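for the recovery benchmark. tokens below, seq after
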């Protein structure tokens, strides 16, 4: 785990923000708080506004109404780009790597806000890069060209670049996409460790509701650009909420052994009641 802790813990909260593409408001009056040491998962159907809300917190889409402030009082609108990049990093779904880079070189990009303006000095950089590679299992392929990676390996390189940035707030848009089972579990463990051991505040978009239930302290359910449920996994992951949001029956069960919540969208192929009736 990181030898040097990230910068002083600092949460961020958005209050009643609207976010638009052109004149089209797609996120309406959304509020979200990412507190130090907590993991907040954003869930909801395709197009419900999860990525847009996350990107608004990183100022990639400035809100057209409402406000976003950090726990120390700083306002998202007035921070310099460099100050913002030292506080918050985003693993986005949209990314293109410049050609000709190897894994280590791409991860080094994550250190840009820590370099001195002219000389490029960054004494903690090499350790941060090694740490990020170790956490994401990339050390053995550090010199491999990024262009020659599989989808899952490339996903881990982008995540490592975010980790190397050493921010106290981490925004992750579907970080487990493309990953095989082992790396899904390991990356989720890394995220949990960053929150528990280093006080990082994490906002993460997840489509896998069982993963969200397992990793998150709080969930936000979005539907049509609005937050329609918020709270603990038990509060949010209910049959009523999920069936309404996804437009398909979703059963929710709590494992009697470990107390974990499991969800199951029910279609014709896996509806035991239908099968029993037709047997
Ligand atoms: N670049 C864009 N220009 C215009 N509209 C956009 C753009 N990106 C997203 N939208 C629209 O904004 C709304 C919210 O999209 P967003 O990507 O935030 O949803 P999401 O919940 O993250 O979806 P998904 O689960 O499919 O990734 C959708 O109606 C989408 O069509």
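predicted aa per position
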């Amino acid at each position: 785990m990181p030898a040097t802790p990230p910068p002083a813990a600092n949460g961020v909260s958005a209050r009643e923000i609207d976010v638009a593409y052109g004149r089209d408001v797609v996120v309406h009056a959304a509020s979200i708080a990412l507190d130090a040491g907590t993991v907040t998962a954003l869930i909801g159907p395709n197009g419900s506004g999860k990525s847009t809300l996350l990107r608004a917190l990183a100022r990639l889409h400035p809100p057209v109404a409402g406000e976003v402030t950090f726990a120390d009082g700083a306002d998202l609108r007035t921070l310099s780009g460099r100050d913002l990049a030292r506080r918050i990093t985003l693993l986005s779904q949209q990314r293109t790597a410049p050609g000709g880079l190897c894994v280590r070189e791409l991860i080094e990009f994550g250190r840009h806000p820590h370099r001195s303006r002219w000389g490029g000095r960054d004494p903690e950089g090499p350790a941060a890069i090694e740490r990020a590679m170790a956490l994401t299992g990339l050390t053995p392929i550090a010199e491999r060209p990024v262009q020659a990676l599989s989808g899952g390996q490339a996903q881990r390189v982008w995540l490592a670049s975010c980790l190397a940035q050493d921010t106290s707030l981490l925004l992750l848009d579907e970080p487990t996409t493309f990953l095989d089972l082992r790396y899904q579990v390991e990356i989720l463990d890394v995220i949990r460790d960053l929150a528990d051991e280093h006080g990082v505040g994490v906002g993460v978009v997840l489509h896998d509701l069982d993963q969200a239930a397992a990793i998150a302290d709080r969930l936000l359910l979005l539907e049509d650009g609005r937050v329609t449920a918020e709270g603990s996994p038990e509060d949010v992951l209910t049959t009523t909420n999920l069936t309404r949001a996804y437009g398909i029956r979703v059963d929710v069960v709590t494992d009697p052994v470990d107390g974990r919540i499991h969800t199951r969208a029910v279609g014709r192929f896996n509806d035991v009641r239908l099968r029993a009736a037709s047997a």
